[in-house]
Amino acid sequence: MANTPFILEMNHISKSFPGVKALDNVTLKLRPGTVHALMGENGAGKSTLMKCLFGIYTPDEGEIIIEGQKANITNSKDAINYGVSMIHQELHPVPHRNVMENLWLGRFPLKKFGPIRFIDEKKMLAETKAVLAELEMNMDPHTKVGDLSVSNVQSIEIAKAVSHRAKVIVMDEPTSSLTGNEVEQLFKIINKLRARGVAIIYISHKMEEILRISDDITIMRDGKLIGTWPSSEMTMDLIISRMVGRELKERFPERLNVPGDTLLKVENLTSTQGHSFKDVSFELKKGEILGVGGLVGSQRTELIEALFGLRGVASGKITINGKEVKIKSPVEAKKHKIALLTEERRVTGIFPVLSIKENTAIASLPRYRNSVGLLSDGKMRQDAEDNVKRFRTKTPTIDTPIKNLSGGNQQKVLLARWILTDPDILMLDEPTRGIDVGAKYEIYTFMTELAKQGKSIIMISSEMPELMGMSDRIMVMCEGRMTGIVDGKTATEEDIMRLAAQRG
Amino acid sequence: MNAASIKRFSSQNAIYIVLILLVVAIAVYDPTFIAITTLRDILVQSSTRAIIALGMAFILITGGTDLSAGRIVGITAVISASMLQMETYANRFFPDMGQINMIIPILLAIIVGLLIGLLNGFIVAKLNVPPFIATLGTMVAVYGLNSMYFDIDPNNSQPIGGLRSDFTNLGTGYIGSDGTYSIPYIVIIAIVVAAIVWVIFNKTQLGKNMYAIGGNIQAANVSGIRVSRNIMYIYMIAGALYGLAGVLEAARTGGATNNYGNMYELDAIAACVVGGVSTAGGIGTVPGVMAGVVIFSVINYGLTYVGIDPYWQLIVKGVIIVAAVAFDIRKYVAKK
User: Fold this and answer.
1) Is the pLDDT at A379 greater than 90, yes or no?
2) Which SMART domains match (chain A) (predicted)?
């Protein structure tokens, strides 16, 4: 074995796709027992680099060296054999099977009975318990995975990697759907892995987290390596400026909107489901950005989905422009000029196989009808092109399937889709989740522009700086109840947290 | 044009390339295959299949499937044939029926197809039964209904024959002076149907909604598409197309039995998937479906033409279905 301080080296990796150089001479070196943050805007090449590591793409140039030896990884099984594992952002467990079976899926311990092999349940149970104990994970191996929280499912994935004796674990946006406590739990596990000498590639957009947990930070931009620095020498501003390649004076644009008269009035709105929102009352003014804060389980998403007709309302009153309205379906919500950008972009947002054009136009088809009732392709193309320019969406053409775009660019297309419906009330559920800094800033700019034009925005966000930086007022919810509304300019983080934890 | 772009072109247009290669291969084996009459025969054979496949494409693109297509063809063939027999024919289905306007039974058959389609759509969209099961149910039930009708006294399950010449002319007649340089009506009908379907797919809200529903049904709902209503429209249109195909089958063959159309749905699904329609929904084009249909007609006709054992033809068909999809799927899997 060659003598090297690095457990994994990806040297001078280049990869081109027709028309794009996705990776240009990128080098990433990992020391054992460290957390190495990989940062960059969406489309910077982070995922492509990881796909090269896992053999999903074959690099055009460059080499991968694991523990001093050249590695030839052509599929995920090779990667596992080399001790490289990945914890994906979106987890795909087998929900109807239990923890133990998910952990050993595809490599169940076997015992021989004559010529027949059976699964060795005893051994499997013992090994499961051992792995869980090692990581101090408190879980019953017999629990159905479908009944577990996202955080626990993620823990199983980590346990799986550990049981593979992984030396390198890649974590892609591991905290994107975790609550504060769960993040702490994850960090404890990460520290344990670090102590065992495991190297972790940590991909995230959350700066606070990265500055806290990582040892080294590698920053990429436009497929190129910008550099690797020890985290101790980095600050949030330095990271941002290196990621976007320009100094970002402000994280949030200046807001010039002036909230006017009341547009939407919600009184005592109560869900048809007992555990969901109860007795929620609030007002939304014209040209106002109303932030909605709260922890997981605060039923914020359920509330705005009910306003959009996706969920049942048992009692309460919704008034728009002084007129009482009943909204039982998205079709009716659209008639009342309400738009909703949902939280789960992939599940309820994009049409993966359809083009940017179709994804942009789909919610406003009637406006493309010509005199004989047929849809004008030319107008649709025009709008799609205009919106790609307006949002600076990175895509080869408007005929590209949206699934080929990065998350931030998909979000821009979805935003364009709803802007095209010309809404008065735009509801955004975690609009910048999993999106890079540059795209975030662009989305913020849009929100302020829209508000300035007199449009009203409701924004759910779990990111405190975003809530405070973007909202005129912030409504806070806890366990389905509205616990308070605070002023965006004067409220402190503590005020919001207190309200978010204030049980009824 | 470099190697990469040639590769891309060939994978995007694989279906047409396969079609051309197939024709060339048969022509090399037997040059007399290249003739106007051959082309005409292939197009005639393709016509009703194309109409059924286009109906099927609607449903596959929404992410559904339709096993009842063949049986709907059967019942509509029997209905139209039963009312369009010559008055001089001995074994008439309705002995006392006069010479009614041809359009009445034809429309009736199409409406029956449409209503069965509506039923399918209702079961799928409103009762949330998976399309495979919903249409399996109607497939069996429609056959029962058809057989019951077919067994009415005095027909008593006798094949319906002696169809009126104005009706059979629809299936066998042509524009043009003689049999060689002529365009059969049935081919014209299929082309007109394809053109209409193309317009629906590409130029109407229903078409865009269809792709959206197949692409992501939840996102379609959130986007304000009336998902159930659109699904019911789609199944209705498909049913009406099967109805038209049933009428044309009766006209083309000059008769009908309750077994008409048996398993046509499988041919239609095969033609669709070979033509690039995704069974996962969201993807499919009219030209692709037409090419898929023609490929199978070329295989049927061409391999018979050069004298290949019919059993071998089945094996070739099976291989082509799987190979075409395996090749096509490469467009969508991550490229290395």
Assistant:
1) yes
2) AAA (SM00382)
CB atoms A363 and B216 under 8 Å: no
A380-394 mean pLDDT: 93
- The residues, any chain, with a CB within 8 Å of residue B16's CB and separated by 6 or more, are B291
Nearest Cα neighbor of B94 from B145, B144, B147, B153 is B153
A137 and A197: one domain? yes
pLDDT tens-digit readout, B213-255: 999 999 999 999 999 999 999 999 999 999 999 999 999 999 9
Domain boundary among A195, A221, A244: A244
| Cβ pair A51, A118 in contact under 8 A | no
Asked if B208 lies within 8 A of A331 by C-beta distance, the reply is no
pLDDT at position B335 over 70: no
The residues of B whose Cβ lies within 8 A of any Cβ of A are: 4-5, 8, 199, 202-205, 208-209, 211-212, 215-216, 218-226, 278, 282-283, 332, 334-336
| Pairing state between β A116-119 and A110-113 | antiparallel
Residue A446 belongs to a domain: no
Question: Would the pLDDT of A119 be above 60?
Answer: yes
Domain total for chain A? 3
Rounded Cα distance, B88 and B86, in Å: 5
Asked if A311 and A350 sit in the same domain, the reply is no
Mean pLDDT of A114-141: 88
* Model pLDDT, residue A1: 41
Rg (CA), chain B: 21
| A392 in the same domain as A427 | no
Record: contact B205-A365, CB cut-off 8 A = yes
Chain B: give the shortest CA distance to residue A458, in Å: 17
Q: Are residues A236 and A132 in the same domain?
A: yes
A60 plus A104 within the same structural domain = yes
In a domain? residue A452: no
Whether the pLDDT of residue B179 is over 70: the answer is no
Looking at chain A, the number of H-run helices and the number of E-run strands are 16, 22
- Give residue limits of the domains in chain B: 47-261
Residue A403: domain span:
343-422
Mean predicted confidence (pLDDT) in A138-165? 87
**A-chain residue closest to B216, CA distance:** A351
Q: Is A348 on the interface with B (CB under 8 A)?
A: yes
Give the containing element (helix H, strand E) for A161.
helix A150-163
| Higher per-residue confidence, A248 vs B208 | B208
Q: Is the predicted pLDDT of residue B105 greater than 70, yes or no? A: yes
Decide: A353 and B220 in contact? Cβ < 8 Å: no
pLDDT cut 90: percent of chain B above it: 67
Please report the ipTM that was assigned to this predicted complex: 0.86
Q: Which residue is closest to A365 within chain B, CA to CA?
A: B205
| Its pTM surpasses 0.90 | no
Q: What is the pLDDT of residue A223?
A: 87
pLDDT digits (tens, 9 = 90+) for B277-315: 988 899 999 999 999 999 999 988 888 888 888 888 889
pLDDT of res. A80 = 87
Question: How far is CA B233 from each of CA A132, A358, B56, B82, B279, rounded to the nearest angstrom?
Answer: 53, 20, 13, 28, 19
Asked if the Cβ–Cβ distance from A374 to B199 is below 8 Å, we say yes
Residue A496 sits in a domain whose CATH number is 3.40.50.300
Alpha helices in chain B (DSSP H): 3-12, 14-29, 36-61, 69-82, 103-125, 131-150, 165-172, 185-203, 205-215, 217-222, 227-253, 264-274, 286-305, 310-329
Q: Give the C-alpha distances (Å, rounded to integers) separating A63 from A72, A389, A428, B262, B306.
A: 9, 37, 43, 58, 55
Rounded to whole angstroms, the Cα distance separating B82 from B91 reads: 11
**Selected residue of B222, B226, B328, B333 to mutate for chain A interface (largest A Cβ count, 10 A):** B222
Query: Does A330 contact B334 at a Cβ distance shorter than 8 Å?
Result: no
C-alpha triplet A399, A400, A405: angle, nearest 5°: 145
CB B213, CB B62: distance < 8 Å: yes
